[in-house]
Every structure is written in C-alpha cells, then in structure tokens.
Amino acid sequence: MLVLVALTSAVSMMVPTSFLKGLVIGSFFVGGGAALWSLTVQVTGTAPVMMGDTAEMWTAMELRRLQSRGWRVVNHFLLARDDLDHVLVGPGGAYVVETKWSASPWQSEFGRSRVRAAVAQANANARSLGLWHPMKSRGVPVRPVVVLWGGGPNRQESIARDQGTTIVTGNALRTWVDRLDGEALSADQVADVWQALDAQVALRDPSDRAENPVPTSVAALLSRCSIAISCAVLGFFLVGRLLAATDSVWLSVGLGAATLVPAVVGTRVRRLRVAAWGWLIGIGLPVLALALAQLLSQL
User: Fold this and answer.
1) N or C: which end of the chain has fewer CB within 10 A?
2) 3-state secondary structure of 98
3) Domain NERD spans what residues (predicted)?
4) Using an 8 Å Cβ cutoff, are 58 and 168 in contact?
C-alpha cells in the first residue's frame, strides 16, 4: 500500500488537470483496497472457506423447496464438536446432507479422494444422527447424502450411490429434490422429530456462538469508533462550557466528575459500553488536567 501511495502521488503530480488528479487518486482508493483485499483472501486461504460457505447456502436454498411438501430443514446442526451441514426430515425419513466445494474437477485424482472422504464423513454423521436418542427411539431411518458443487466448467449432472451414500452434483440437486418422496413418516412423526431437532438447536446454538464468536466487522468497528469519538468530543465541549459558565475551576471539576459516575455504570452495560468509555475519556482527561493545573498554580 505504501508503494501504491508513492506511485499515486507521483502520477497525480504529473497529470495536468484537477479532474485527472482526482481520477488517479480515486482509482488508488478503489483499486488499491480491492487489490489488498484480493491478495489477503488468496494468501490466507480464505477463498476456499468462503466458497464452501456459499455452496452450503446454495444447497440450503434447494432443500427449502421441499418445505411445501411437508419436509423440514435445519442447517448447521450440532450434536458433537463438528456440525452436520444440513438435516432434512420429511415423509421419506431423515437425511444428513454434506456439502462440498472444489475449484478443481471432481473426476481428478485429488477430487476423487475428496469425494471418498466426504462419503466417509456423511456415513459417520448419518450413523451419529441415527444413534441420537430422539431418532433411535422413534425408529427414524437416516440416510447420508453428499452434494458436490464446483468441479470446473465442464461438470456434468450426476446422481450416483457409493457405499450407501447418495452423491449429487450441485447442478443435479434440484432434480434429486424433485424426485424425493416416500411414506416412511407421517406428518405427526415429522412434527415430533422436528420438535426434537428444534430443542437441540435451541440448546446448542447459544453455546456454539459463545465458543466460536463471529469476528467484529470493519463496519461495526467504524461505527463504535464514531460513537466513542462523538461522546468524547461532547464531553470535552461540556467541560469547556461548565468552565465558562461557572468561572470556577473546582466547581467545573466537581460537576464534570459527577457525570463520570453514571458513565462508569454504563461501561457495565453492553449497549452503552462504547459511548460510556468515550464519555469517560472526554470528561475525565480535561477534568484531570484542570485539577492538576489548579493544584500546581496553588503551590
């Protein structure tokens, strides 16, 4: 970014008009930030993770089409430490659906090894869900499914079976969903199983969010900084107004310090914490400076 700043500064000084200078500087802010973001995504390995999350959203969108036919879907279902991407419950029984993404062809040696690992994972997850007491006690059959997204530009629609696991390419998922049917469970049984799944989600999701908190976004950080700075400036301005109105340093210090008590309490409240800290800084620093200056003047 420093190199880009230097180049942009040099070029902007050489162009003849203000319009072109603005164009160069604007291009730097847009292109430089985008290039840094792209480089960060590639170098840190974030791109495959992002595409994996996107592929799970694609699968969830297709599975939701079954809701009109009496099926229920839950995403990111937690039984143990690792989650199940999707759990599908309906008239045809229960399915554990694992979603995978690959930029390289699934037919390559690397792709086939990933498919084998995905099949083993889906089988293990189906076994775990089938042994879960609400499923086992109700005799609900659980079948594993693997959905493969990506795989290069020449991917073909495919629905196959391997070791009892259904393997569906992403572009064939809608076809598989449309064919899905059965009478293994009644509507009451589906509702009963769904109630158990819903209770598990309500139990595990809060603890999962506490163990794996979502990082604070840049927008949230900017918003918090803006609130803190605004409160600090307002507090600083208030001390100045108190000093001008009372014409007494110690009275201004006392009145300003009195406002620090509710601010300290506010730091304990989550929604008020940022504003309270800004107020403490904006009031506390000038109050402390005035008190020290008055003490030194009296010595």
Assistant:
1) C
2) strand
3) 52-148
4) no
Q: Which residue do the tokens 């694609």 mark?
A: 58
Q: Are 60 and 73 in contact (CB under 8 A)?
A: yes
117 Cβ neighbours under 8 A, 6+ residues apart = none
pTM of the model: 0.64
Structural domains in the chain, sorted by start: 2-43 (no CATH), 48-211 (3.40.1350), 218-298 (no CATH)
The amino acid at 183? E
Measured torsion, CA atoms of residues 103, 109, 115, 116, in degrees rounded to the nearest 10: -160
Please give the DSSP secondary-structure letter assigned to residue 71: -
Look-up: residue for tokens 């199983």?
Answer: 193
- Residue 181 in tokens: 């049917």
Range 261-264, long-range pairs (CB < 8 A, 24+ positions):
none
What separation in angstroms does the CA of 235 have from each of 60, 167, 289? 49, 63, 14
Residues 6+ apart with CB under 8 A from 125: 84, 96, 98, 144
Model pLDDT for residues 194-243, shown as the tens digit of each residue = 999 988 888 877 776 666 677 777 788 888 899 999 999 998 898 888 88
If one counts every other C-beta atom within 10 angstroms of the C-beta of residue 114, the result is 18
Backbone angles phi and psi of 97, in degrees to 5: -115, 120
Q: How many CA atoms lie within 13 A of 211 on its CB side?
A: 8
Q: Which residue has the tokens 């991407």?
A: 85
Q: Which residue shows structure tokens 């993404």? A: 101
pLDDT tens digit string along 277-289?
999 999 988 888 8
Residue whose tokens read 């659906």:
97
Q: What span, in angstroms and rounded, lies between the C-alpha atoms of 158 and 76?
A: 25
Token pair for 59:
């699968």
Quick count: other Cβ atoms within 10 Å of Cβ 219?
8
SS3 85: strand
